[in-house]
TrEMBL record:
Compositionally biased residues, Basic and acidic residues: 316-336
Lineage: Eukaryota, Metazoa, Ecdysozoa, Arthropoda, Hexapoda
Keywords: Covalent protein-DNA linkage, DNA damage, DNA-binding, Hydrolase, Lyase, Protease
Protein name: Abasic site processing protein HMCES
Keyword DNA damage: yes
Length: 336
């Protein structure tokens, strides 16, 4: 699945990171950033992008200019969570969960089939996405959070923007995720562009974290084929979507669980031995506190007239047995 992403680049930085070679040309082109009103919603770079936030996506320029080549590209800000074109009323109240869409049966979906047939394919850009480990039977608040990203050059650290070298051409490898977009019009004729992330069953090592993953486009050729809806028909484009074999991830703090937390702590690697709740504590109870807890419970049981052995008692007794004992008694200071 894909529940949160991270995208902290400014529009100009994104343009630089999204250079491409059109039709095998040697000189790379740079997609132009196209501002859209989107019913007043704006793109704000964030370490914790959640559904209903706006992020720039890549699309074929032909969607916005009939004279453009379908191989040309634009960067267009769109809202995460596709609003159906046929929805009436407030776009925030369509009542559907459209953040992600399953690849299985997508072509026959009444919701996603029409955008696919219209060639409304897009590429969602992010530095990485967050995933919570769901393969273990844990409560949602206890699930480990991971930051997933593309393999990077040796000196590039995802949590340290100063290592990305954007001012000299950049070495950052963005994740490029296949998606669909639609256009919704309000009663005043204002347009809202919105997208959904395509997902499928996970394969490989990532299956140890989650059973579904976003459809990541690993090569420039895959990106070109996915976007060029005139040259590549829908059925062939869907066949491009295969499980990604080159992903990296690391554990992060659960401060990312709250979508309102946009700080740079969201994608920081969790230090070994630290808990994931953002407290910085190791989660190991000191022996003194364990003893104190046992004594408090023991006293309460005694006061209530219950003198039953506690499960913790055996642990404490075991600790007492392991305490070092002086073999020689200390001399009495009053004895000469």
């Amino acid at each position: 699945m894909c529940g949160r992403t991270c995208l902290t680049l400014e529009p100009k930085e994104l343009e630089s990171c999204c250079k491409y070679n059109k039709n095998g040309q040697n000189k790379p082109k740079q997609p132009r950033y196209r501002n859209e009103f989107n019913c007043g919603k704006k793109y704000v770079p964030s370490f914790n992008v959640a559904p209903t936030d706006v992020t720039p996506v890549l699309v074929s320029a032909l969607h916005f200019d009939e004279s453009a080549d379908s191989a040309d590209r634009l960067l267009v800000p769109m809202m995460w969570g596709m609003v159906p074109r046929w929805h009436k009323g407030d776009f925030r109240k369509h009542g559907l969960t459209t953040n992600n869409c399953r690849l299985e049966g997508l072509a026959f979906s009444k919701l996603y089939g029409p955008p696919l047939a219209s060639g409304q394919r897009c590429v969602i850009l992010c530095e990485g996405f967050y995933e919570w480990q769901t393969v273990k039977p844990l409560k949602p608040s206890e699930r480990a959070a991971f930051y997933v990203h593309a393999p990077q050059a040796e000196k590039v650290k995802m949590e340290d923007k100063s290592t990305w070298q954007l001012e000299t051409g950049g070495q950052l490898q963005l994740l490029r995720i296949a998606g669909l977009f639609d256009v919704w019009n309000d009663e005043n004729g204002d347009k809202l562009y919105s997208y959904t992330v395509i997902t499928f069953e996970t394969e490989g090592q990532f299956a140890s974290i989650h059973h579904r993953s976003p459809a990541i486009l690993e090569t420039d050729a895959q990106v070109a084929d996915w976007l060029d809806f005139k040259r590549v028909p829908a059925n062939r484009a869907l066949n491009l979507l295969q499980p990604c074999q080159a992903l990296k991830w690391y554990r992060v703090s659960n401060v990312v669980n709250n979508s309102r937390n946009k700080s740079d702590q969201c994608n920081k690697p969790l230090e070994q031995g630290k808990s994931g709740d953002g407290s910085g504590k190791s989660g190991v109870v000191p022996k003194s506190k364990m003893m104190q807890s046992w004594l408090i419970v023991k006293k309460r049981k005694h006061d209530e007239g219950e003198e039953q052995p506690l499960a913790l008692e055996g642990t404490v007794k075991q600790e007492l047995k392991t305490e070092p004992v002086d073999k020689k008694p200390k001399p009495d200071p009053d004895v000469p």
